[in-house]
Hints:
Blueprint: H1 3-23, H2 27-31, E1 33-34, E2 48-54, E3 65-70, E4 78-81, E5 94-95, H3 107-110, E6 111-114, E7 131-135, E8 143-151, E9 155-160, H4 169-190, E10 202-207, H5 209-212, E11 220-223, E12 232-235, E13 240-242, E14 249-253, H6 270-288, H7 299-314, H8 320-329, H9 350-366, H10 372-379, H11 385-395, H12 402-415, E15 435-437, E16 442-445, E17 450-455, H13 457-463, E18 465-466, E19 473-479, E20 482-487, E21 490-493
Parallel strand pairs: 5-11, 9-10, 10-14
Antiparallel strand pairs: 1-18, 2-17, 2-19, 3-16, 3-18, 4-15, 6-12, 7-8, 8-9, 11-14, 12-13, 19-20, 20-21
Amino acid sequence: MDDSMLKKVGYIFLSVLLLTALSCEPFWASDDIKTDKIKGYPASGGEVYFVGINVSGLTSTDYKTKTGELPGNGSGPKIIKEGKSAASRPMMLVDRYPAFGVMPSSPENTIHNLRSDAGRGRTPVSESTLSYNHIYNYWTGDSVAVDRVAGGDHVYIFCQSSKKNLVTEEQWRELVSDFDSHYETMVSVFGEPSDVDGNGKIVVTYIDMVELIGDEEKYTGGFFSFTDLYEDVYDISMGLYSCGNYMDVINMNLFAEVNEENTGPDITDLKMKSAVLHEFEHLINESQRRYLGKTMMDLWLDEGFAMTAEHLCYGRENLDYRVKYFNEYVYDSDYDMLEVPSLTIWTGSLINYSLSYLFMQYVRLQCGNTAEIYKQMLAHKYGDYRAIENVVCAVNPAFDDYEDIISGFYLANLLQNDDGKYSYKGEADQFTLTIRSPSTDVWYLFPSAVVYYKSTPNKLGDTLRLGREGRNMRYVLVADGDIYCVEEGRWVKQSE
């Protein structure tokens, strides 16, 4: 065959491909199907809820899953179930992640920790230590002088030398008393903390983060940096060393704004006292995980545990602002880069905190309201959703895997039953939540994210086009109190 003939054959082949491509429907049209065209669609009922869930427990946006064509409301998120409201945006405290400026995506893979008894010559804090220079910038080693202001059975408290007189001795004693009174609870629930400096005490150091770091720290309650437990930390990806205090220390903000009238240190405010235990859990978590050679726990879990520590020690009411924030702002695109946020992808947003708190309370209550599960999860081989899956499924046979657990959580938020898998059990009245449908079209969901719709059977069936249920997508209908899931191409009624 000569060259001219080969060219003709090539042109014909390309023409056939082009015509075939032009005659095909868009890729989503052949994959998606109207909700009511799936066999077994419940046609009765005055109202129907549709729930789409990405049931993956992974922590990367790379694992988003196609949902199909789920249209938004256009004008803004639409409330489909109303919970508690807040008259104004509640004041929030957050952690900061100071050791690396940004959170490393996979610390167990990118960070090499070097630990030695020498501690680079730093003298451990002891009973005789009255002051030391506290490192607050973990890259540059910048430090500030701090003086000891109080001590107890399990804690030494230090404060920035130039600011210590702004707090009374009575307030310092109150902090010591509070920490000591909750220490045994924390250890029994989460495990023993490290003791890298060999003094048998936790050091809690108060500094003016606004003055030393910047005005953006006014909403920071405090932080724990894992760098403080090691001699040096080397970030392979950045090629940089960071240094820490080489002690079991919690860093607290002396000038956190815990209320709108904040004019000075308010360290005995309940939120600030609670924040100390929040950070103490982070220290225990690091002590029980990477310090012992295990993988780091996913941040969404670690934060959920830390808020559980606050809940267990200071009561549900102390975390009420997390529920109020969920009800006021979750799924509102004005307050987060993701209108449909993920439970497992931690961005450090206030929405992340609310979701993690609610999820851990759901898990606690589904496991018989026992605190024993947390130590089991911390001891698990994996510090991710598999720890949740292993422990919860062993305790509650209603769950088969993480997919069941995350689906149960999101359905509990919607249905708010008094008991059973889709409830917060004996505390259901404390978790009345506002659920919204999105304002923008949804084509994908990130891992452990959910989308809700409410309509009539006919309208819902006509407007939603579902992608064929993939490995991570679960579609649910709630009609007349019954729950249906797509199984092998049809809607199948579920039994709890």
